[in-house]
User: Fold this.
Amino acid sequence: MIAIAYVSNRSMLFLSTLLNYVPFLILFIKICDAVAVAKILNATLVIPHLEVNPVWQDSSTFMDIFDVDHFINILQDDILIVKEVPVEFYWSTREYYATGIRATRVKTAPVHASANWYTENVLPVLQSYGIAAIAPFSHRLAFDDMSKDIQRLRCKVNFQALAFVPHIRALGNSLINRLRYPAQGSEVSTNYLEELDNTNKKKGAGKFVVLHLRFDKDMAAHSACEFGGGKAERLALAKYRQVIWQGRVLNSQFTDEELRSQGRCPLTPEEIGLLLAALGFDNSTRLYLASHKVYGGEARILTLRDLFPLMEDKKSLTSSEERASIKGKASLLAAVDYYVSMHSDIFISASPGNMHNAVVAHRTYENRKTIRPSMALLGQLFLNKTLTWPEFQEAIREKHKNRQGQIRLRKTGQSLYTYPAPDCMCNA
Ligand SMILES: *[C@@H]1O[C@H](CO)[C@@H](O)[C@H](O)[C@H]1NC(C)=O
Ligand SMILES: *[C@@H]1O[C@H](CO)[C@@H](O)[C@H](O)[C@H]1NC(C)=O
Ligand SMILES: *[C@@H]1O[C@H](CO)[C@@H](O)[C@H](O)[C@H]1NC(C)=O
Assistant:
């Protein structure tokens, strides 16, 4: 009993978070699991420090992205969270762990470890030293065989405790306002609550669709598919594959046709345009493009823009002064797109991946509509050179009837953060 009291009052869980890919989305999941592990151990959690992401070169910290006070407040009845390690543990730094074997560092957490693993292997460290650092920590907590309370806590962290910092929400709300009331225009308000309030009062809000599109060079090259850009593009992508992965791209063993019919080729902006048109969207649809950088630039999205002239993005809707605080910061740019995606009437993503999974799950949790394109069907239809437009449209509509937000239950081994039902839902 004494040991436990000691643990709950003094222990710290210090987590290393080396980020990769779209940074803040990976972090979502790590921080949720960190809270769960702290709960299992009755330990205090120290807000993690982020390392600069080598790919995105983004030095944004947890506190630059998320509203930390909100985070701590929402979880105050669940666990104790502190922003910094207390003075007596100041020696417990990233450098300290990087430069030698340390008794307070736990390196052996297996992938998808059980709750028992933590009480057997980390609790003794906490009891002896008052602090433990678990690194690496990605995917180190199982999704199955966890108590209901722990699952609920993970849901609470992911869907309620993590809120973006006020300036991201303010910018996001301005974008949403301008999409809903295109004629009025509005200044970015630093008081996001006020702006949200005004939004609710105004009448005749227009609807908008968010299209999440990831079609960057990295992805195009890695898919090993062809994208109709002719010989020059084929050579450019082949060269990129050679330089970046020394040719080791798993998909290379398949032909373009095989990959396409399996739905393994990213959809091009043009293909997505045809999909949207087949589903009944038209030139009166207000479309927001949530996208980082499109390989091929404006030329590649020309067809999409022709079909949907009311297409907007972060850049078209804001001035450069308004974007100054997020300029060049991949995680903040992604956060703004995430925020707008969460508030759209319809969300459609043509790019499976972290952002896709996170937004789809969050929208499921909030019961908002999402369209999930069938990549395999699209691949097959685009290969068919004799298909007419009415046939294409018919096939698309038929296949997408039950891909418009119907809840899919999590299966064993799947992530709670991708499939929040049933664990995060009421009466589960
Ligand atoms: C944590 O606290 C709870 C409630 O006080 C207790 O039931 C549980 O055994 C504790 N767990 C550990 C690992 O100390
Ligand atoms: C939208 O499409 C309709 C029907 O194809 C056409 O008549 C109309 O001119 C278009 N409007 C704009 C603004 O392009
Ligand atoms: C192409 O589509 C047409 C019309 O649906 C169909 O009859 C034909 O079999 C398809 N061809 C291939 C190669 O799948």
User: Anything to note?
Assistant: The mean pLDDT is 83. The pocket of 2-acetamido-2-deoxy-beta-D-glucopyranose (ligand 2) is lined by residues 283, 309 (CB under 6 Å).
